[in-house]
Amino acid sequence: MPLWKIHHPAGAYSDADKQEFAEAITGIYTQIPIPAFYVVTIFEEVDGNNIYVGGRSHERFVRIQVDQMARTLPGSVIREWWVHTLDEKIKPFVGDRGYDWEFTCSELPADLWSLQGIVPPPFSSMAEKRWVTENKALAYGQSEMLPASFVAAAENGEVLLAPGIRGG
After folding, report:
1. How far is Cα 51 from Cα 36, in angstroms, rounded to an integer?
2. d(CA 8, CA 65)
3. CB 68 within 8 A of CB 167
4. Phi, psi for 60 (deg, rounded to 5)
5. Could you tell me the pTM of the whole model?
6. Above 90 in pLDDT, residue 17?
7. Phi/psi of residue 159, each to 5°?
8. What are 40's strand-pairing partners?
9. pLDDT in the model for residue 24
10. Binning pLDDT at 50, 70 and 90, where does residue 150 land?
11. Where are the domains of the chain?
12. Is 162 a residue whose pLDDT tops 60?
């Protein structure tokens, strides 16, 4: 689940702007793909006299907090790419509208997360693939915890022993 909390000046975004911004954020993740319903966006209006940057009131500032649990980003090169990717998606809704902004991403343990009382399936598993297609949390069994690539290989009469290693 990515949870985006967007703290913004009162009146910065219309309902249509919020919809468009939330859809842009969701699109970042559905391209991976992860289920669209994993993505939660919360807009929190803050009166201008309640936003301070460097100890001074800043009425044109947007602060975004991103909590990510569905995936973790391995290594500094991918992390830097991710920050630039998010900045590109955020910019039309902040910088291009004359707002200063910053964001942070926190990666939280995925094993401390559930949806509708169900622990999400493993990354790239058959169950996750079904969750992407159905766009909702669904019960799944042990066999659906297998990677989709493993199941596809098995259906072709191959045994996938490990990534890149085939047997049988």
Report:
1. 31
2. 11
3. no
4. -125, 55
5. 0.84
6. yes
7. -115, 120
8. 3
9. 97
10. confident
11. 2-112, 126-167
12. no
| Nearest CA among 133, 136, 166 for reference residue 150 | 166
Give, in degrees to the nearest 5, the angle at Cα 67 between 62 and 76: 95
Residue 131, token pair as written in the block: 């969750």
For 2-112, CATH number? 3.30.429.10
Question: Average pLDDT, stretch 60-85?
Answer: 91
39 in Cβ contact with 23 (< 8 Å): no
pLDDT at 151: 66
Q: Which helix (H) or strand (E) holds 4?
A: strand 2-9
Pairing of strands 2-9, 61-68: antiparallel
